[in-house]
Amino acid sequence: MLAEVVDTGITGGSSRYQAVLTITMFGPKAYDTITKLTGVAMSDVSYETRRAIASALGRVGFSETTGPNMKALTALADVLAKDVSASVRMEALQSLTLLGPPWDGVRKAGPK
To answer: 3-class DSSP state for residue 97?
Structure first.
């Protein structure tokens, strides 16, 4: 439901911003929301919403078995890293650092 608010919320509206903040709190459990986070909301007129999306992608865009989500990495590096707002660019950089580089293949969970 939160992902739908992100996708269909009014640009610049507080409902979209609050939905992104709430999704961020779920962390990797909100992995399925990446498609909505990287959709139309990334061009929101509010820099605060775009900054929150950059933060959310860094927190939800990691899988224990496949590593960082490529859609999240691409959105952070190609769109948000070139944003007009310095705070959005900084948050995108921090999220890219948090996610790390793409993995090559699938890793098994558990002790080695």
So the answer is: helix
